[in-house]
C-alpha cells in the first residue's frame, strides 16, 4: 500500500510517501535535485517504511523568502519529521544527499538511529581555504531569480538527466523526469522542474574534513555503504579508510550499478540492506 501525505517540520510542509501498512520502521531519503519518487522501486521492498521529501524538492515547500538550503537544515527538517511521525527509533536509508544526511543525523542523534544505509553516498567536504570564495559566490547567487527552470517535455527532461549522468538507464531517467517536472502556474503553465533553483547555490557553511571526522566519531549505529560500480563514489577501500572511526562499517559494491542503483537495481539493494538489518 502506497500513499502520500504532508507533515509539518519547522513550519514547512514536507511530503511523505508510505510503503506498507503500520508504523514505518525505516525512513528513506532521496538525493539532491531528486524527489521521493526516486525511491518508488526500493520502498515496497523495505516496507513498512516511509520516504521523506526534502525542502525545496518535489511537492515539499520551498525555503521561505530569506531562507536557504544549508546542509544542516536537512538534518533539522528530518528531526522534526521523525517527531511528527512519532518515531523514537529509526533506520535511515539515504541516497546521495540523503545518505550524507543519514550519516550526520546518526552522529547528532546517536540514540535515535538504529542503522544507517548510504546508497552511493559519502558526505562532501571542502578545505577551509575555499570558504572565502564560497561566501562571495553565495551572496551573488542569492540575487538570482527563483523561477523554476523550464523544460520542453518529460522526454527532454530525461535526456538532460542522462547528459549529467550518462550511465543512468533510460527507464530510470524517464521515471525521475516523470515525477520531477510539472506545469508551473507562475510561468503560464509551462513545464518546469519542481526543484527550487536556489538549491543550486553554493552554501558558505560547508563541512571541513576535520569537522566531519569529529562528527563521525559520535555515531553508534551500524553503517552500511552500497556503492554503484559505475557510480560517483571512491573505491571501497578508500571509504573504509576514511570512515575507520565508525564502530561497524560494511561496504558493498553492486557492479554495473550507476549512481541511481536503488532505482535501477532495487532488488539487489534491498537484499543487501535486509541482510544487514538482520544482524541488528
Oligomer class: single chain
Assign an overall shape. Answer: globular
Distance between the termini: 26 Å
CATH topology: Rossmann fold
Structural class: alpha/beta
**Main sheet strand line-up:** 1-2-4-3-5-6-9-10
Taking the sheet with the most strands, its summary is: 8 strands, mixed
Number of separate domains? 1
**Total number of beta strands:** 10
Write down the CATH class.
Alpha Beta
Give the SSE order as H and E letters: EEEEHEHEHHHEEHEHEHH
How much β-strand is present in the residues? Answer: 15-25%
Contiguous uncertain segments of 5+ residues: none
Give an account of the 3D structure.
This protein is α/β, with parallel strands linked by helices and 280 residues long. It has one domain: Rossmann fold, CATH 3.40.50. It has nine helices and ten strands. It has helices spanning 71-85, 97-108, 131-141, 154-164, 170-180, 209-216, 236-242, 261-264, 266-277; strands at 2-9, 12-19, 26-29, 49-52, 90-95, 113-119, 181-184, 190-193, 223-228, 249-254. An eight-stranded mixed sheet has the order 1-2-4-3-5-6-9-10, with helices on both faces. Strands 7-8 form a two-stranded antiparallel sheet. Helix 7 (236-242) links the parallel strand 9 and strand 10 (249-254). Helix 1 (71-85) packs across helix 2 and helix 4 (154-164) crosses helix 5.
Amino acid at each position: 500500500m502506497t500513499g502520500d501525505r504532508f507533515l509539518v517540520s519547522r513550519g514547512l510542509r514536507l511530503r511523505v510517501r508510505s510503503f506498507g501498512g503500520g508504523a514505518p520502521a525505516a525512513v528513506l531519503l532521496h538525493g539532491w535535485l531528486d524527489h521521493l519518487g526516486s525511491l518508488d522501486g526500493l520502498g515496497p521492498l523495505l516496507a513498512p517504511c516511509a520516504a521523506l521529501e526534502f525542502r525545496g524538492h518535489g511537492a515539499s515547500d520551498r525555503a521561505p523568502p530569506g531562507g536557504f538550503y544549508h546542509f544542516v537544515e536537512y538534518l533539522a527538517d528530518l528531526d522534526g519529521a521523525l517527531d511528527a511521525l512519532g518515531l523514537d527509533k529509526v533506520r535511515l536509508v539515504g541516497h546521495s544527499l540523503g545518505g550524507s544526511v543519514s550519516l550526520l543525523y546518526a552522529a547528532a542523534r546517536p540514540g535515535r538511529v538504529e542503522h544507517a544505509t548510504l546508497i552511493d553516498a559519502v558526505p562532501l567536504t571542502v578545505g577551509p581555504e575555499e570558504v572565502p570564495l564560497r561566501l562571495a559566490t553565495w551572496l551573488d547567487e542569492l540575487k538570482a531569480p527563483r523561477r523554476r527552470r523550464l523544460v520542453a517535455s518529460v522526454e527532454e527532461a530525461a535526456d538532460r538527466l542522462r547528459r549529467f549522468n550518462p550511465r543512468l538507464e533510460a527507464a530510470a531517467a524517464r521515471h525521475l523526469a516523470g515525477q520531477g517536472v510539472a506545469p508551473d502556474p507562475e510561468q503560464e503553465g509551462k513545464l518546469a522542474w519542481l526543484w527550487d533553483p536556489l538549491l543550486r547555490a553554493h552554501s558558505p557553511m560547508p563541512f571541513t574534513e576535520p569537522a566531519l571526522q569529529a562528527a563521525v566519531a559520535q555515531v553508534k549505529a551500524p553503517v552500511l555503504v552500497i556503492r554503484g560500480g559505475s557510480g560517483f563514489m571512491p573505491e571501497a577501500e578508500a571509504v573504509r579508510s576514511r570512515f575507520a572511526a565508525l564502530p561497524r562499517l560494511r561496504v558493498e559494491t553492486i557492479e554495473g550499478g550507476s549512481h541511481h542503483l536503488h532505482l535501477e537495481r532495487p532488488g539487489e539493494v534491498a537484499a543487501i540492506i535486509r541482510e544487514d538489518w538482520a544482524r541488528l
